[in-house]
Write a structure and sequence with these properties.
Structural class: alpha/beta
Distance between the termini: 5 Å
Helix content: 10-25%
Radius of gyration: 17 Å
Strand order of the largest sheet: 1-4-3-5-2-6
Number of helices: 5
CATH class of the largest domain: Alpha Beta
CATH topology of the largest domain: Lysozyme-like
CATH architecture of the largest domain: 3-Layer(aba) Sandwich
Oligomer: single chain
Strand content: 5-15%
Number of domains: 2
Number of strands: 6
């Protein structure tokens, strides 16, 4: 993702297994007034639970840990950063690998205080990035329920299979309670509303340069290559991540 901070995730969730593209929104049980996106990302990486993006909506800081073409590891763990033990578990929930894209966005916020009720600096940049990977701007499961009712919320695998945007509390097989009662219309600019047109799912070229210089996403397999190109500022792989 162009123009964001980087924390090189030491471990991702492996290859994605295919299916409809989707984005999953999670909260980290942390105060956006005092916890930066970078420090939260470093803690995620320390415990081998990397997501794709960590976002502090109050500060507008966005940090990327792993490329979007690799699976994350954040789904299935406790949502509150303070609940994590010092040891790192190796087993990762299978749901992390479901979808040809399964973008995991961890928000520095509390599930009990929906982050959509406050300023969301940087949101447009995130939505543009998700749209560039053909993630449909819709919520098949509807709005996530208020915290802590998400612990017992219905998780429909049929709806999950449609792709689009989901809260962690809507992901099959999990017991997550967040992100709470976020305003999905405000979060995805009308997603989930009647008459909203889903994004096209055709392959999206990588990079913002001339078409003949772009590389298909399928060719980007090496994590070091991805970061090296972006850090060097070549722009060739600017949409990968």
């Amino acid at each position: 993702m162009p123009g964001v901070g980087r924390v090189r995730g030491a471990l991702d969730g492996g290859p994605l297994r295919g299916g409809a593209p989707r984005a999953v929104w999670q909260t980290l049980g942390a105060d956006p007034r005092t916890v930066s996106a970078r420090s939260a990302a470093q803690r995620l990486d320390q415990h081998a639970r990397a997501c794709h993006l960590v976002w502090n909506p109050l500060q507008g800081e966005i940090v990327q840990l792993i490329p979007i073409l690799r699976a994350g590891r954040s789904l299935g763990w406790p949502e509150d950063l303070s609940q994590w033990a010092d040891d790192t578990a190796d087993e990762v929930a299978r749901v992390n690998t479901e979808g040809r894209i399964c973008a995991q966005i961890c928000v520095v916020a509390f599930a009990g205080d929906p982050f959509t009720s406050r300023p969301m600096t940087g949101l447009e940049q995130i939505l543009d990035w998700l749209d560039s990977w053909a993630i449909p701007p819709r919520w098949p499961a509807g709005p996530p329920v208020p915290f802590p009712r998400g612990l017992t919320a219905r998780r429909d695998r049929r709806l999950w299979a449609q792709g689009g945007h989901f809260g962690a509390s809507q992901v099959p097989g999990l017991t997550a309670a967040g992100p709470g009662a976020v305003d999905i219309e405000r979060l995805t600019a009308g997603a989930g509303q009647p008459g909203h047109a889903p994004a096209q799912t055709a392959p999206v070229p990588v990079g913002r340069g001339p078409a003949e210089q772009r590389r298909p996403a399928a060719e980007i397999r090496d994590l070091d290559e991805y970061f090296d190109h972006n850090e060097a500022g070549t722009g060739e792989l600017s949409r990968v991540g």
